[in-house]
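Why should sequence recovery work at all? Because a backbone constrains its sequence more than one might expect. Tight turns favour small or flexible residues, buried strands favour hydrophobic ones, and helices have their own preferences. The token representation captures these environments compactly. In the example below, the structure is given first.
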């Protein structure tokens, strides 16, 4: 079996988190407090697609939103994946076959 490389689309995941927050009527401050952060910058970075939540934060978000972790993360396609260097930064990019 060939290795399967899966990429998480940070920007789309941020949009999904924002949608789930609105649906559940949570503010950035609510997310900050639930995750135990002193400042809201981490939440803003998720929402803008600059970073992804840690595993611990994903578990908290999944409980708050009543979804699985898979319901939060947006995968880049559903088929075969390969490594590629993107123009502005290095990420694991994907290709739908």
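From this structural description, the recovered sequence reads:
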């Amino acid at each position: 079996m060939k290795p399967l490389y899966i990429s998480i689309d940070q920007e789309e995941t941020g949009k999904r988190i924002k949608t789930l927050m609105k649906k559940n009527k949570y503010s950035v401050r609510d997310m900050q407090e639930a995750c135990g952060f002193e400042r809201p910058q981490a939440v803003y970075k998720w929402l803008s697609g600059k970073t992804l939540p840690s595993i611990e934060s994903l578990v908290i978000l999944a409980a708050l939103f009543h979804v699985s972790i898979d319901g939060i993360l947006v995968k880049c396609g559903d088929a075969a994946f390969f490594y590629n260097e993107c123009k502005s930064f290095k990420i694991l990019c994907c290709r739908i076959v």
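A few observations help interpret the result. The radius of gyration is 15 Å.
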